[in-house]
Amino acid sequence: MLNLQISKSRNINKISITLFCIVIFLCLFSIIMNQTTREKRVRLGNEIFVSRYISELRGQRVGLVVNHTSLLPEGRHLVDSLVEKGVAVASLFTTEHGFLGNKEAGQNIKDSQYKGIRIYSLHGDIKQPTTQQIKDLDVLVYDIQDVGARFYTYIATMKYILEAASLENIPVYILDRPNPTGGLIIEGPLLDRELVSFTGPCPIPIRYGMTCGELALMMKGENWIPKHTDIRVVKMKGWRRKYFWKDTGLNWIPPSPNIPLPKTTLAFPGTSLLGGIGINHGIGTQNPFLQLGAPWLDPEIILQNMREKAVRGAMLSQITYTPRSLPGKTAYPPYKDRLCRGVLISIQEETAFRSLEFTLDLIRVLKSHFPDKIKIITDRFDSLFGNDRLRLYIEDRLSYEELKELIKKDEDTFLQQRKPYLLY
After folding, report:
1. DSSP string covering 365-394, please?
2. Mean pLDDT across the stretch 311-339?
């Protein structure tokens, strides 16, 4: 009986030791995996800034250009983090869609405040900081997630900030962030200089493949802003040009109401143009820019006539839908409350899909099969595309081959032009 009890006791001890070893192993494994995950995650410019640059802000009155995307990876807003560390945040400036990112495109944003700090809107009657707004500042800091398309207005705001700062000799820190469309692929023509505007601030392609820090340096280097502008880019750690958003290890915060997913940014540079020719481009749905349609459109014709090269990296399927007014996203989408037939775009390979290639070939098909329906309905069409060549093609004054050749020439030119400004 005694031997039996001793045997049981030994067995229990062995089991306890085994369980203890398993728990220790799992804990160590978890620590290693968490460390590996942290190492794989891209470290944003704002992380580096908060950990290494605070001493440079001591005794300085700081203005922040921020919105809802200006979060550190743990979810804390940059404003809160800097205030906690004793930085004198004197004022905030915000962009289209507002500080909370919940205003629809084009809506005027009013001045407001955040925890007692004045927020100046740069998307209303005033789009560039005034002398009165920045004269008492010592430093400006820009930390906003962009989408990588020329006509997305955040880069125009960055340019206007840099111009205003140069007039007052104020340095600007650009806290760098990933370009969700990657850093290798270029799409579209260079913007004609006479078409420079708030939706086209620089002579760059539609999809330019640069981070905001790189683009700011290019603005200075190419004399698009004053040469003496004091730009201080705080680089990311771990970002590679080949990265798309899924490679960064970062959470996605929609930069605006109609950019809900990282993959939306891959379609946006091309399918945005469709609204200018009478096509609903997914606005008024839960899938903006990744679907398209119209009441008169026959999706079978699209599926049968699109060239294979234009749809590589994506799967197309037929869809019927009704665009609706969506508060905070769009009030009047094209074909509001009308049944549309069209195509859903499912991007399978980010490295292969070319939004502009897809859109131009789609326009070719529509022009061939629905010539009476395809008409330019906005006077901003040339400025969105970058020049008058797409309009000339639609008006039968330029061939499709000539259009594509001219675009390719501009893309090749820009690939060389941007090289001196690449940081990664």
Report:
1. HHHHH-TTT-----TTHHHHHSSSHHHHHH
2. 97
Among 55, 88, 90, 49, smallest CA distance to 72 is for: 49
What Cα–Cα distance (Å) separates residue 59 from each residue in 56, 143, 206, 243, 344?
9, 21, 41, 38, 54
pLDDT at 35 over 80: no
Residues 245 and 291 in one domain: no
Residue 173, classed as helix, strand or coil, is: strand
CA distance 264 to 285: 13
**Which of 404, 180, 189 lies closest to 309 in space, CA to CA?**
404
What is the secondary structure of 244-306 as a DSSP string?
-GGGTTPPP--SSTT--SHHHHHHHHHHGGGGGGT-B-STTSSSTTSEEEETT--HHHHHHHS
The per-residue DSSP string of 33-82 comes to: HHHHHHHHSPBPHHHHHHHHSHHHHTT-EEEEE--TT-B-TTS-BHHHHH
Beta strands 117-121 and 112-114 are: antiparallel
- Domain residues for the domain of 77 are 45-253
Residue 13 pLDDT: 53
- Alpha-carbon dihedral of residues 302, 276, 188, 292, nearest 10 degrees? -30
Using one digit for the tens of pLDDT, what is the confidence trace for 197-227?
999 999 999 999 999 999 999 999 999 999 9
Alpha carbon distance 311, 316 (integer Å):
8
| pLDDT band with cut points at 50, 70 and 90 for residue 329 | very high
Assess if residue 340 is contained within a domain: yes
Q: What sign does the dihedral 175-178-183-187 (CA atoms) show?
A: negative
Please indicate, yes or no, whether residues 268 and 346 belong to a single structural domain of this protein.
yes
